[in-house]
Amino acid sequence: MGIKRELLDILACPQCKGQLKTNSREDGLICEKCRLVYEIKDDIPIMLIEKAKPLQA
């Protein structure tokens, strides 16, 4: 199903307040600046810095 465009437009990285985009599988939100991925579980983004994973190259 993926995350709704309206929600993605208002979400920001909790660390740098930068723009987020979905990954190719639409199961995570990527912050390019911080190189972090915030997981999406049951269509709910987990926006906790301590739960974010490093972005793999």
Question: What is the approximate shape?
Answer: globular
Q: Specify Rg, calculated over alpha carbons.
A: 10 Å
Order of helices and strands: HEEEEE
In terms of per-residue confidence, which ranges show pLDDT below 50 for 5 or more consecutive residues?
A: none
Which class do the helix and strand fractions yield?
Answer: mainly beta
CATH C-level: Mainly Beta
Structure report:
Strand 1 (21-22) and strand 2 (28-31) form a beta hairpin. Strands 1, 2, 3, 4 and 5 form a five-stranded antiparallel β-sheet that branches. The mean pLDDT is 92. The chain is globular. The N and C termini lie far apart (26 Å). The protein has a single domain, classed as N-terminal domain of TfIIb (Single Sheet). It is built from one helix and five strands; from the N terminus they run αβββββ. The longest helix is centred in the N-terminal third of the chain and has 6 residues, at 5-10. With 57 residues, it is mainly β.
Layout of SSEs?
Layout lengths: L4 H6 L10 E2 L5 E4 L4 E6 L2 E2 L7 E2 L3
Antiparallel strand pairs: 1-2, 2-3, 3-4, 3-5
Summarize the structure.
The protein has one helix at residues 5-10; strands spanning 21-22, 28-31, 36-41, 44-45, 53-54. It is mainly beta.
Features:
5 strands; 57 residues; mainly beta
